[in-house]
Amino acid sequence: MKTFAVNEGLMSVYPVREDILRIVYTKHENIGDPTALIEENARREIDCEYAEDDKTVIVNTARVRAIVDKKTGAVCFANAKTGKLYVQETEKTLEPQDVIHYTTGGEAPQIERIKTVDGERNVVRNLRETVDRVAYRGKLHFTWKEDEAIHGLGQGEEGIYDYRHHVQYMYQHNMRIPMPFLFSSRQYGILFDCGSLMTFNDDERGSYIYMDCVDQMNYYFVAGESADDVIDGYRFLTGKAVMLPRWAYGYVQSKEAYHTGDELEEIARRYRELGVPLDCVVQDWNTWDEGKWGQKTVDKKRYGHLKENIDRIHFTITNGSNYQFQETAMNIKEKEMVSSIVDYLDELDLSKKNEVKDTGGLVGASTYTLDLNRGTKFVRRYMIYGDYITIGKDKKQQVIYKVKHDKLSDLLKTLDDLAEANNDKEEE
User: Of 13, 11, 16, 2, whose CA–CA distance to 45 is shortest?
Assistant: First the structure.
């Protein structure tokens, strides 16, 4: 990593991919490593063309060019092939500040309960301030093009699509999920390796990103020709975007809060009774004993059987039909039908080669649970959903298989027919 002096500090610019540059500026003696935000494979420097004189540093890859003003530290980013300007910085600053750590110094905490406008709070009266280290307030200034739009920055509640001519305070709060990444309509992105409070500012006071507490100003410039290119760079830096389980894309029932475990269970049962699709019920808050705000153990009077409630809710949501069957008549009265289902199950190709660890979240109204009993003795449980079948006596012993087999399709058709016949009988 090549470093150079700039603006009373130390700076480095180098590529981690042909379209991605890491830019670091600090007033410490050395350039620090990236934080845990950055993937391991995005921490390696790759080859590039590097040139330096008294006034500038130029870094070139096949995709992007950076020209650094050694007096101000400002960087000009351009397309290496066409010379088209992406964006121009104007300056960057770091102002030192003490990072304060609060401690009792090993003493037992002296806690006092006080009333505030936000309710009652606990205050530790014998805390003392100590200086943990020196860090910086950072500010990075830009010159945006007049017609340039800026997107990203996470999830806010103001409904802003283009952050030009706006101020956005980036902090974690209820209904606020900040992300230190912006995307420009000029087809580039910038990821800030910063875990502190931040502010995006674009008004009469200037256009800049403010970082409240950093050990170094550390960010990544991602060049592209489309939004997909830039997002690909973002994923390279931060990791592959993992898809949510399928149930998360279904209907989620939520309101301000429910009040008992039985109420939660009744909500799921009623949805199924009405035939309305449902994939998740959200409890939200207020599960604790009265007066114990935020306590993570539940009120035993209202949620005394929460595990059983959750198990029954999960069963209600994920199971469209449930048949208990055995070799003599039970729910399914015809012995031939019981025998036929057993034959279907026995003929499935269930072996180590098609055993899987999970079902990828594939649950829903088309799930069938079959409990096999001989006499009054429970033998095993089969759960069938899509191309998957789970077999076992309980969760610890269950094995999941992925099956592509005509017999499975025949079995599911049989179960669907039974469900339809059963519904017709209930309507009569």
Answer: 16
Lowest mean pLDDT among 145-159, 248-262, 353-367: 353-367
What is the identity of the amino acid at 412?
L
- Cβ pair 9, 54 in contact under 8 A: no
Whole-angstrom Cα distance, residue 350 to residue 345? 9
Residues 6+ apart with CB under 8 A from 34: 22, 42, 43, 193, 218
Q: Which residue has the tokens 């079902």?
A: 359
Q: Which two tokens stand for residue 289?
A: 């004993």
Return d(Cα 94, Cα 160) in angstroms, integer: 29
CA atoms within a 13 Å half-sphere pointing along the CA-CB vector of 220: 28
Helix 261-274 and helix 306-318, axial crossing angle in degrees, nearest 10: 10
DSSP at 173: B
Whether the pLDDT of residue 46 is over 90: the answer is yes
Please report, as a single letter, which amino acid is at residue 324: Q
CA separation for the pair 28, 134 (Å, rounded): 9
Measure the CA–CA gap between 303 and 301, rounded to whole angstroms: 6
Alpha-carbon distance 129 to 163, whole Å? 38
- pTM, entire model: 0.70
Cα gap 152→198, rounded to integer Å: 14
Mean pLDDT of 114-132: 88
pLDDT tens digit sequence for 167-192: 999 999 888 999 999 999 999 999 99
Per-residue model confidence (pLDDT) at position 186: 97
In whole angstroms, give the CA distance from residue 196 to residue 12. 22
